[in-house]
Design a protein that fits this description.
This protein is an all-beta fold. The protein has no helices and 11 strands. The strands form 2 sheets. Strands 2, 4, 5, 6, 9, 10 and 11 form a 7-stranded mixed beta sheet that branches. Strand 5 and strand 6 form a beta hairpin.
């Protein structure tokens, strides 16, 4: 599967953005979907993940209550709704897909999108 993330941009602290991850192929609904982010000089960090059905989700503590992951299998698209954004959320955000499991470990993900920049100004 090929992934393309978009929707990033510049936003003030406290604002909102919705990232989208468009996937190619007809088997999108079989994949677990996730979001990671990476800031300059830091390792890639897990943000959120969702099961293939959407029934289970996982978030890093720092975004709980502010970010929501979702998916529309009929549109082959996953989303990351980000609210109450903080300057420390500034990063390149990547979407990822996994065939068999989802976890906070980047190595367990099979496919990656190209990343979209999110910048939160104070």
């Amino acid at each position: 599967v090929q992934l393309q993330a978009f929707g990033g941009g510049l936003v003030q602290a406290g604002g909102s953005l919705r990232l989208s991850c468009a996937a190619s192929g007809r088997t999108f609904k079989r994949y677990r979907m996730g979001w990671f982010r990476q800031s300059p000089g830091k390792e890639r960090e897990f943000v959120a993940a969702m099961s293939w059905s959407g029934g289970s989700t996982l978030y890093v503590d720092s975004v709980k209550g502010r970010f929501t992951i979702s998916r529309e299998n009929g549109k082959n698209t996953a989303y990351l709704q980000m609210s109450s954004l903080k300057p420390e959320d500034t990063a390149v955000y990547y979407c990822a897909a996994s065939e068999y499991e989802y976890s906070a470990t980047s190595g367990s993900w099979d496919y990656w999108g190209q990343g979209t920049q999110v910048t939160v100004s104070s």
